[in-house]
Amino acid sequence: MRNLFLATAFILSGATWAMAEDIIKVPTDKSVTEAIDALQAAVENAGATVFARVDHAAGAHKVDMTIPPNQVLIFGNPALGTPAMQIDPRAGLFLPLKVQAYEDADGQVWLAYEDPKETMDELDAVEKSPVIDKMRGALSKLTSTAAN
Question: Where is the DUF302 domain (predicted)?
Fold first, then answer.
């Protein structure tokens, strides 16, 4: 039984490590609100559409709970999303794209997003297509612009 427990713990720790690699984090000296404002401006300046802005901390406050500042911006660009869905319509499960700005326990603010290559890794044809590199490039550029 002890060996089963240790094997399970080892496997789960590996899964957690792998998941952490899928999340790309960009540090910023801005507040969460400033970072999401800057990201929204960068997204709109790039010609993409902002679909929603979710304030998780405000949601927590509504149920008398608290978490550090935490917001998500949901956005997309049909020029990137449509080709992915033409390859495999299930790509729509992972689109539009989203970026989270959150404050960690040390007060550091991060912009975080899941690597689209990892998000769509079960859609082989999409994962191997040039559209993934375009999404990765767009997310990298947008978060870098917003962070600085």
Answer: 54-116
